[in-house]
Amino acid sequence: MMMGRRVRLILRLIALVLTLGIVWVVIMMPLILFDMWMKSFEWTAGIPFIPICLTIMTCFTSIYVTTYLYLYYRWLLDN
What are the distances in angstroms from CA 52 to CA 18, 45, 69, 70? Predict the structure, then answer.
């Protein structure tokens, strides 16, 4: 019985990592391309656009992972 739960937990963690990887690529690629286009103008060369976006994405990721794992943990305790 516990083996099934462990396998299910590992599969959910793998799915979580893959989902977050896809979300990071889908969101960050257009932002990086936009930043490269914006850097062609001289007056926007000093704006740290990508570090700010990375910070926001990291905060979103940590909140999402924490909430996801907490809800999964609560679901395991209820069963």
Answer: 23, 14, 26, 27
